[in-house]
Amino acid sequence: MAASSSTASSYRSRFGDTTQTKVFVGGLAWETPSEGLRQHFEQYGDILEAVVITDRLTGRSKGYGFV
Length: 67
Known about the structure:
The protein is α+β, with helices and mostly antiparallel strands. The protein is about 20% helix and about 20% strand.
């Protein structure tokens, strides 16, 4: 079976396999940093990880992330 090349699935979490515990967050402003995403969701409880997905070539946000 070929490995997937998508950014979301190739991201390796330091917390192990979190595919069943992540929440997709779409419609983010291009300027939203991962830390800003984390800070927003911390008001609802402990956050293990928050990441804004970026383009590999440009480093620009793709407008979505996972918490």
